[in-house]
TrEMBL record, chain A:
Chain segments annotated as coiled-coil in the UniProt record: none
Superkingdom in the source lineage: Archaea
Protein name (record): Thiolase family protein
Ranges of residues in domain Thiolase N-terminal: 4-222
GO biological process, one term: isoprenoid biosynthetic process
Keyword tags: Isoprene biosynthesis
Pfam families assigned to the protein according to its UniProt record, in alphabetical order: Thiolase_C_1 (PF22691), Thiolase_N (PF00108)
Domain annotation Thiolase C-terminal: ranges: 238-381
Organism: Halobellus rarus
From TrEMBL, chain B:
Any matching Pfam family: OB_ChsH2_C
Region Disordered: start-end pairs: 1-44, 114-133
Domain ChsH2 C-terminal OB-fold intervals: 44-104
Record-linked InterPro entries: ChsH2_C, NA-bd_OB-fold
Protein name: OB-fold domain-containing protein
Bias-annotated ranges (Basic and acidic residues): 1-20
Amino acid sequence: MERVAIIGASMTQFGQREEWIRDLLAEAGIACLDDAGVSPDAVEHLYVSNMASGEFEGQTGVPNALAHDLSAVPAYTARIDQTSSSGGAGVYAAWQSIASGASEMTLLVGGEKMTHRTTAEATDVIASLTHPVEYKHGLTLPSFAGLTARHYLDKYDAPRESLGKVAVKNHRNGVDNPHAQFQKEVDLDTVLESPIVADPLRLYDFCPITDGSAALLLCPESVAREYTDEYAVISGIGGATDTHVVHERADPTTMGGVVNSSEQAYEMADIGPEDVDVAELHDMFTILEFLQSEDLGFFEKGEGWKAVEEGVTDRDGELPINTSGGLKSKGHPLGASGVAQVYESYKQVVGDAGPRQVDAETALACNVGGFGNCVTTTILEGQL
Amino acid sequence: MSDESTAHDATDGHEMEAYRYPDGSITYPGHPLGPGGQEPTGTVDLSDHVAEVVTWTTSTATPPGVRQPNTVAIVEFDVDGEPVRAIGQVTTDGVEIGDEVRPVYCEELRDPDAGIREAESQEWDGFRFEPVE
């Protein structure tokens, strides 16, 4: 099996954008090809990670549209929809295309256009992934977060403030990310006094609704040096599911998809969680950073909150988490987020993360769809 | 499949149907295949059982057609020693972890015509959970 290299990466400004999905995807795609100095006619496979351009905008067929807009025709193309983990699933598909030998040059672009919808409408589009039994009761992703947060705080006797400190940390990191939707710090009092959204979680426990896109260019490692002196290798990758019906999980505080996908990724990379230098986790809600950091094996079950309290996951901590600002401050354009997580990981391991740079040879990105329903874990190693 | 249940008066004759599988486990909702890929062997009506609140939340940012605020809970039934979890709206916002609740039938849990999902694609009635006094 071919080792797969990432030789180019891009992400657009995340936030409220005037552009629609086609233009957002093209913006990241062009920037990524420019980053690697690769011509669009070299692209053999083109994947688009996108959850719901049809539902949000009435625009379907985006992969073919992008192939045309990038002048990449006749590249093979496909849309990858795995809800909020469409980006991670796109990384998996792009990796497969190179590893299998089906493609010698694969471009992955993830994007979503959401902010033209009201919060209620966007919430409903996302909630449409739920089981009918959940949907008819008005269950939303934020309400799952509220249910899980209350259970976690009660089960592990964790203070409510620890969740707020995730938001504070990730907003602090986002200040140094020029692409982030929010480039401003928030203090703990602001988080804890913000309006309740899904009790006990408040507004600042949630990521915003966002427009944006991100892209990666992949090729076999055997030819990577023809394009660049510095690249990253996907040394490990795994994908897994958990139950569609969230309440059927034995332990509401464990995301089986995170456990299983990371076990696959660690085994492939021949490393353990202790070897990870920096991680991008799917902090769509603050509680998710606790669950993932535990289910990835970084911390014991029920101990993730202590790591945040003790500064272990700060940018200058032992294991920096979400140096990009995470979904919390960077924003969460659904199909783009998993790609943008790997963009940050790539920047970290090739030493190009600017003021966000930490000492990192190995980075991990964990992209979660639904409420842990689908997960992709990707491990990158820098090759300098 | 056989129906092991009897209807409860407070449920207006409606059943909260869970599936039982060969290994003894029960799920709500049911699935075509259960643990080990086995087909269900029967149904269980949860509406005549009481449950305990595992966790709850009150959502204030509700989507179109959903009551606001919307208090929902994950609850756990004990069916002859077999735990069965369910999720649903709560009739009051005065609920706590560990509270005992019972299912109460509701003809329409949200407005079928207000959300993104096709109204004809699913049922909109079901059971809310009411604290047992």
